């Protein structure tokens, strides 16, 4: 059996918390897509954090936590955290989970009604992580410069542009 990385172990521990929430209070709430399960997707190290997606029957959130049990992760503002990713900046809401510690989360999907099955939710979570970590997603599309028409004094004050044929050298 393969040992989990610290980040993957953190994701699994967080998923255990949400599995208990599902069993004790969410299952019968009417908010759940019962075709889905709780799963940590793609947890990995990202600077001083563990980064991944938590998929549940009622939401899918991008999450950052401390990288391992008992470690501190920098959460400078008690309520918000903004992180720079290759695809751009993302703002997270910071909260405390009893028995787990502080997490920062950004909603990806909620509710989860549009997912036909768990594999579709997992695929969407992986695609969101891949896009977030793709620097090409942050590139501004290149546009061809628009041709400029020559202005003469009469056109400037009269509000019309001269065509290229009318423009004097």
Overall spatial form: globular
Helices and strands, in N-to-C order? HEEEEEEHH
**Number of strand elements:** 6
Cα distance, first to last residue? 79 Å
**Helical content, roughly?**
10-25%
Spans of at least 5 consecutive residues whose pLDDT stays below 50 are: none
Strand order within the widest sheet?
1-2-3-6-5-4
Task: Find the structural class using helix and strand composition.
Answer: alpha+beta
Distinct helical segment count: 3
Radius of gyration computed on alpha carbons: 25 Å
Q: Let me know the average pLDDT.
A: 85
- Describe the largest sheet: 6 strands, antiparallel
Strand content: 25-35%
Q: How would you sum up this structure, described in words?
A:
The chain has 169 residues and is an alpha+beta fold. It is built from three helices and six strands. Strands 1-2-3-6-5-4 form a six-stranded antiparallel beta sheet, sandwiched between helices. β5 and β6 form a beta hairpin. The longest helix is centred in the first third of the chain and has 21 residues. It is globular. It starts with 5 loop residues before the first helix and ends in an 11-residue tail after the last helix. The model has no long low-confidence stretch (mean pLDDT 85).
Sum this structure up briefly.
The chain is an alpha+beta fold and 169 residues long. It has helices at 6-26, 118-132, 153-158, and strands at residues 39-46, 49-55, 60-65, 80-85, 88-97, 101-109.
